[in-house]
């Protein structure tokens, strides 16, 4: 199957052959390339953040450096006009892109997870830039989406383009895309370990010794570049918790955090399904796709006016506020209302067509959920943990429920707080949340979106090679057929024992009619009354066939279902013209060879 991103690589200027050979043939060369990608990814994150902040300051008349979600109030006209303007710009951009396509249907833009799962790490840089621009417009105009999706998209796209230019192997190209994403997250949060494990768990799909050095190098380089370019901390520092947790953790703390993990799992599933319901609601209105972001922007602006500006944009300023002592006086009603409003704003933003993800929204919502749990859970007062500690645990647990990556969120909490005891509690909560979501729902937000699109992607594990190992590639094309009306005696004379044991039969219209096993035909033709005298009497599997587009896994399922050693391959369900023959033994051998090759690539044994 041809990857939709291959066309984007045509005309690409490749690097000199000696430099390509150095990177392809040396692990150190790949690490150096990953470090360069990390630096470029860190710069891209800073550039996107600066442009987005300038856009917010211009639209909402914010003081320089002020966060939109940290505002206590906004003028009515600005609160409504900001998201609506962003929606209008996205609609116009969508119309321009449709016009450029010339009426061709829009294809889905490939993100790093899908690229590594299906396309061997190949991404379109043009599509990645488009997604990044859309994300900047969405977040900068106040839609309730984060920038993390844009960060990983542009960094992954740059990494993929560089890997293609260097002619990297499939496994190395997938690793390099993970390096770009690691650099993006490391730069966005100032947390290199978080970035590295984001790449392992969500982009590459596994951790191996072979990927350790390049991914960590990229994450650290991205974080260092971002810190050197931006004086203000990218995230929030609550290292004071390290002092309050010096006494270690108790059984009561662990049980409470496990309970919070289960609660966050339920909230995460509800939020993901809510986004889908809102998106379907917008589609059923019949409003043209170009106008939906405008309507969604008006809804988000109205929600900000009715509740608080904290529901706008990603929520960095609001999260800073709720992890500070200033928010200690907020009660159950205020926190519940804000949690519902922020969840609704995020669902409306994504459902209406704004570009972005739920990464940061899940962190902010998790902080609110943790504080609510602290206020509502019975017996919590007897436990030594503070409301801020529960906010950190809830932040990680809800983010795992929606985004995935248990170790990613654990390291994020550790790098935020510097508290190993709290990190242990976070780990317990995220495991509870992850297991619950996986067993009851089965998807993260990204893979849930793939599922709605018809893709069977559960993670970034490489399953693209299975799709490329098609029946059309595996089948034997030199197939001789025999007409179905051939007398059995003639068939036996022309196909004696010892000749090829399988013969494909076609009807009068040259359509597939079954397979004859030569030894079986000879055994059944005894020449006595009642014995079969026609070829049709010994033909088998007349309704079982394969198509060239099937992959090896589907072909093996067909062999198991029909209990046949071989099946004919036809060009389509209508014409049924025979184009090849595939045996079960050959399919199993080729599938095993590819599976072993992938295993070697995963553990770094590829020569």
Estimate the strand proportion: under 5%
Distance between the termini: 25 Å
Main sheet strand line-up: 1-2-3
Write down the overall geometry: elongated
**Radius of gyration from the alpha-carbon trace, in angstroms:** 29 Å
The tally of strands reads 6
Q: Output the structural class.
A: mainly alpha
Helicity, as a percent range:
55-70%
How does this model look, in words?
The protein is mostly helical and 607 residues long. Helices cover 62% and strands 4% of the residues. The strands form two sheets. It has a three-stranded mixed beta sheet. Strands 4-5-6 form a three-stranded mixed beta sheet. Helix 23 links the parallel strand 1 and strand 2 (502-506). The chain is elongated, with a radius of gyration of 29 Å. The model is unreliable at 1-10 (pLDDT under 50).
Report a brief summary of the structure.
The chain has 607 residues and is mainly alpha-helical. It has 26 helices and six strands.
Task: Summarize the helices and strands and which ones pair or pack.
Elements: H1 6-9, H2 17-25, H3 27-60, H4 76-101, H5 112-118, H6 125-140, H7 148-165, H8 170-189, H9 192-204, H10 209-229, H11 240-244, H12 251-284, H13 292-306, H14 316-322, H15 332-352, H16 359-376, H17 387-402, H18 406-417, H19 420-440, H20 445-453, H21 464-468, H22 471-474, E1 481-483, H23 488-494, E2 502-506, E3 512-517, H24 518-524, E4 546-547, H25 552-562, E5 566-570, E6 578-583, H26 584-602
Parallel strand pairs: 1-2, 4-5
Antiparallel strand pairs: 2-3, 5-6
Helix pairs in contact: 2-3, 3-6, 3-7, 3-8, 3-10, 4-6, 4-13, 6-7, 7-8, 8-9, 8-10, 9-10, 9-18, 12-15, 12-17, 12-19, 13-15, 14-16, 15-16, 16-17, 17-18, 17-19, 18-19, 25-26
